[in-house]
Amino acid sequence: MQPGKHAEELCVRLKPWARVFRSLLLCPWRRSRQCPEALGGMFRNSAAISLHLVGSLQRKKAGASLSRCLHQTLTMAKRLHARRLDGIDHNPWVEFTKLASEYDAVNLGQGFPDFPPPDFAVEAFQHAVSGDFMLNQYTRAFGYPPLTKILASFFGKLLGQEIDPLKNVLVTVGAYGALFTAFQALVDEGDEVIIIEPFFDCYEPMTLMAGGCPVFVPLKPTPTRDGELDSSSNWQLDPTELASKFTSRTKALVLNTPNNPLGKVFSKAELELIARLCQQHDVLCITDEVYQWLVFDGHQHISIASLPGMWERTLTIGSAGKTFSATGWKVGWVLGPERLMKHLYTVHQNSIYHCPTQAQAAVAESLEREQLHFGQPSSYFVQLPQAMQRSRDHMVRSVQSVGLRPVIPQGSYFFVADISDFKSKMPDLPGAANEPYDRRFVKWMIKNKGLVAIPVSVFYSVPQQKHFDHYVRFCFVKDESTLQAMDKKLQEWKDELGA
Asked: Which of 254-265 are b and which e, b meaning 16 or more Cβ less than 10 Å from the residue's Cβ?
């Protein structure tokens, strides 16, 4: 018999053993630790199988082709990805951004400005690039000293705290990096993390990757009068339901105010309720406040860390990208007590270690400028929300013209719009049988109307998605030319409805 035949024959004989090897390789290590007998048995079985295979190899002398077959049989049985990635691989942003580019649609989905940062911020970046050549090198791992100093000074006044720039501040790769570092540093296997729905979609996978268990509590809309537009302030936590989510296993609660996607700004009374429960149950608060300067209609942003007893158990996360309309700079930060921050430093120094120095220098100079102008008409933190409120109002009026019903946001980049009328009139849009309606609607709108939004169901846990699949999210932090392009698409849509 030819060597190739030997290899073919033995490959067939090896197939049942491949299944055994696969089960051994995928056997959870945790189970073997709990049961030493199982571990011993695993190695005895492995040894027996190895002897059998070696004997077959020696008898057949099948050559290199058999070696390749055996190698493939064993390596293909190995699990390639870590279990922490199970179930979190799908990213809706990739899907809808791809669709938007394919159909050349007006992108009102992704949350980024399509206008330049303020002149002073651009100039600060130019100074950082063309000035001190040492800004091309590493700086302090936990943050460029002038930046941590201004962050401590600026936010110390807002939070009513003496903030130490060396112990209470960490600069990260955007607010996204701050969130990931916080979850990795503080959430352990089996810890419960309370997440308020709708939520920015990274909170759940970051909890899972840290080994934690997400526990969800929804904001519930209250009915509005006929013809009256809904407001994000009408979406409320049920105090009894929120309290029921706290257990002895609760490690942290994630707060996002102003909220993405809803645009809700949590009131002082709501924050006091959350603070009281966190203190009562000895729970940490991770608060995402990246939209704190974008608050409208006279509403006020309050940081929960400024409430009595909350600084010591709160991590406050901010973003230069959202603060200065420069999301590509990817400079974020975390502020908190030393007893918490020291653990975030450990994660940071063993993962990212260091963030780009020049971007940090530009943010430091920009914040120093804003500190001088704070509260004055010349402040960007005054000018930006005024301009964006006008954009919000423009977009709200425009989408109403085709039958969408906006929920007026108190803050953030976004508002959601109710598409219930379309769900009643067009219930059978193309899509998978179990696909939420809002996802099918957004795909239909991109392909047929040339407008991009994000389905709100992606901001909910799976059990709640079916209850909130009649909303889509729009981003109104856009340039005048984008608003005009949107108006043109909506006018075409309106003309079709009239016909």
From this structure: bbbbbbbbbbbb
What's residue 69's pLDDT? 52
Judged by DSSP in three states, 160 sits in coil
CA distance 97 to 152: 37
List, in order, residues 6 or more apart from 82 with CB less than 8 Å away: none
Q: Which of 20, 18, 21, 38 is nearest to 29 (CA)?
A: 38
Question: What percent of the chain is modeled with pLDDT above 70?
Answer: 85
What does pLDDT average to over the chain?
88
- Comparing CA positions, the residue from 255, 276, 277 lying closest to residue 266 is 255
Measured CA distances, 401 to 60, 241, 477, 490, 498 (Å):
78, 37, 20, 8, 11
CB-side neighbour CA atoms (13 Å) of 342? 2
Per-residue pLDDT at 451: 96
Contacts of 120 (CB under 8 A, 6+ apart): 366, 369, 380
Give the pLDDT mean for 419-448.
94
Predicted model pTM: 0.84
Write down the pLDDT at residue 253.
98
The C-alpha atoms of residue 39 and residue 460 are separated, in whole angstroms, by 41
Token pair of 55 as six digits = 């004997």
Looking at per-residue confidence, does 236 or 18 come out higher? 236
At 22, the pLDDT band (50, 70, 90 cuts) reads: very low
- Distance from C-alpha of 126 to C-alpha of 27, rounded to nearest angstrom: 55
In contact, 348 and 125? CB cutoff 8 Å: no
Instruction: Tell me how far apart the alpha carbons of residues 356 and 331 are, in angstroms, rounded to a whole number.
Output: 8
> Residue 260 gets which letter from DSSP?
T
| 207, 223 contact by CB (below 8 A) | no
- 466 close to 448: Cβ distance less than 8 angstroms: no
Per the structure block, which two tokens stand in for 494? 């309106």
pLDDT, average across residues 170-188: 98
215 strand-pairing partners: 194
**Closest C-alpha among 477, 436, 463 to residue 195:** 463
If 0-12 CB within 10 Å is exposed, 13-18 middle and 19+ buried, where does residue 223 land?
Answer: exposed
pLDDT the model gives residue 91: 75
Length of the chain, in residues: 499
